[in-house]
Amino acid sequence: MYKIIARDGNAKRAEFQTVHGTIQTPVFMNVGTAAAIKGAVATTDLKEIGTQVELSNTYHLHVRPGDKIVKQMGGLHKFMNWDRPILTDSGGFQVFSLAGLRKIKEEGVTFRSHIDGHKIFMGPEESMQIQSNLASTIAMAFDECPSSVAERSYVENSVARTTRWLARCKTEMARLNSLEDTINKNQLLFGINQGAIFDDIRIDHAKAISEMNLDGYAVGGLAVGESHEEMYHILDVTVPHLPLEKPTYLMGVGTPANILEAVDRGVDFFDCVYPSRNGRHGHVYTNQGKRNLFNAKYELDQRPIEEGCQCPACRNYSRGYIRHLLKAKEMLGMRLCVLHNLYFYNTMMSEIRQAIEEGRYKEYKKQKLEGFLENDKK
Length: 378
Prior knowledge:
8-stranded parallel β-barrel, globular, transferase, 2 domains, zinc, 16 strands, 3-stranded antiparallel beta sheet, queuosine biosynthesis
């Protein structure tokens, strides 16, 4: 159940009740592709840094260790020791990213494992079955993510097929949730809006999937090569055609600035690999922009990554020490940077929720964006 608590312009502050707890939105989901956050971050750490939702990947867990093994281990929550909500993506994005290894048909997609090259077939039913075995809180519908520069005729055919696949996902999800041996019989299903950067295709698709009365809706196929302006424009034209009274999820986005802009356009779920990926390379987010801790100027810097930050890294260690760890290729350096970045994102979402509740979101966004432009002056 999704309940809007406050609105400020198009920005929404809501609560989404699930079988694994209530999600306060807007929310940033911390990405743990293979049931782990890259950078040696444990689920116990995730609680300490304020994570609400963990996101795992259907394709990667199907390939290794195997979704049937996860089911035998009691489902993803038990497997990774996480008792809060988990969202699993459908494998659809891998259809996009493994373009050289795939073959798309009406039934589904055949592609080769990136690990050992063995053939995998995944269609709507298989994706739902894998996600049911994983027993995540929210399952994503199986879709094709067309390239943002694809021809119009290709995008039209792809989106029409994604709609047909969505109907099959919904039917299969209902069947799986009714089975006796299903771990999570309350698994939720989110549909995905596609259409590259064609306004009319996006709008028509949003209207079509809105009629299917799903648990939530995602905007997919953005942040895959188009400009930020194009992405914001697509959100401007598409989000108003998705149900207001259901969660709206912008997949794979993004930078702190992207999130601030998308919240202003009515989006309330986000995920992105940036905080963990950048953290592993010594790039850390602060309210003054991004810092590269490999820079020589931090060698003797005794200050934390960001003064006033309450993350485990900033409470205990200096920029100089973390820089040394990174230079020495000590895993602790990566871990501390990832913890800081995820804490920064989670804290920003908490501030966003408060700003919307207090009716000052525009002012908050402006102040935050101006701060980011200071970029490494300190």
